[in-house]
């Protein structure tokens, strides 16, 4: 079984066991009995063929791989079909969200304070990697939150963290 993260590219690969490099490959993805997509795989090295797919819904997928003799992928090669099950979930995304809220690879900025010097709002941004955070690479930015604090009689009475578009 292969695990995939929602909205992240997952590698799909099949191997010609004898290492043939002159074949053509295809993978068909299914959600239950419903065909989703058919993708051509390119030769990577030593009989390994692959591509990537980015799932857009959680659930279970089936991948069926087939090798062919021709580039039109109409003449099956003399290899067994292969298949695997793919579980698509947002577990990894949720873990990264939690880590961001714990300030892992995060920057807290745009702080605002009331007259008593107490924090009333801030922005928290979390990146996929430390390197992305250090240079504030927009392509590495995962999440942005707005932190809001309300005080009554000098005491924090309402604290909120909400997604910021």
Molecular structure report:
The chain is mainly beta and 165 residues long. It has two domains: 2-89, Immunoglobulin-like (Sandwich); 93-163, no CATH class. It contains two helices and eleven strands; from the N terminus they run E-E-E-E-E-E-E-H-E-E-H-E-E. It has helices at residues 91-101, 130-135; strands at residues 2-5, 10-15, 24-31, 34-45, 48-53, 59-68, 82-89, 106-113, 119-127, 141-152, 155-163. Strands 1-7-6-3-4-5-2 form a seven-stranded mixed β-sheet. A four-stranded antiparallel β-sheet has the order 8-9-10-11. The radius of gyration is 24 Å and the shape is elongated. The protein starts with a strand and ends with a strand. The model has no long low-confidence stretch (mean pLDDT 95).
How is the topology of this model organized?
Layout: E1 2-5, E2 10-15, E3 24-31, E4 34-45, E5 48-53, E6 59-68, E7 82-89, H1 91-101, E8 106-113, E9 119-127, H2 130-135, E10 141-152, E11 155-163
Parallel strand pairs: 1-7
Antiparallel strand pairs: 2-5, 3-4, 3-6, 4-5, 6-7, 8-9, 9-10, 10-11
């Amino acid at each position: 079984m292969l695990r995939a993260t929602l909205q992240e590219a997952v590698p799909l690969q099949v191997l010609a066991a004898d290492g043939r490099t002159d074949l053509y490959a295809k993978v068909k993805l299914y959600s239950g009995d419903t065909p989703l997509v058919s993708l051509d795989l390119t030769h990577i090295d030593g009989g390994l063929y692959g591509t990537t797919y980015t799932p857009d819904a959680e659930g279970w997928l089936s991948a069926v791989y087939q090798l062919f003799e021709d580039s039109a992928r109409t003449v099956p090669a003399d290899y067994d079909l292969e298949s695997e099950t793919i579980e698509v979930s947002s577990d990894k995304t949720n873990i990264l969200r939690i880590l961001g809220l714990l300030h892992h690879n995060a920057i807290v900025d745009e702080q605002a304070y009331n007259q008593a010097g107490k924090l009333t709002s801030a922005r928290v941004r979390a990146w996929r990697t430390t390197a992305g955070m250090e240079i504030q690479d927009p392509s590495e930015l995962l999440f942005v939150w707005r932190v809001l604090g309300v005080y009554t009689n000098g005491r924090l009475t309402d604290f909120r963290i909400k997604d910021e578009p």
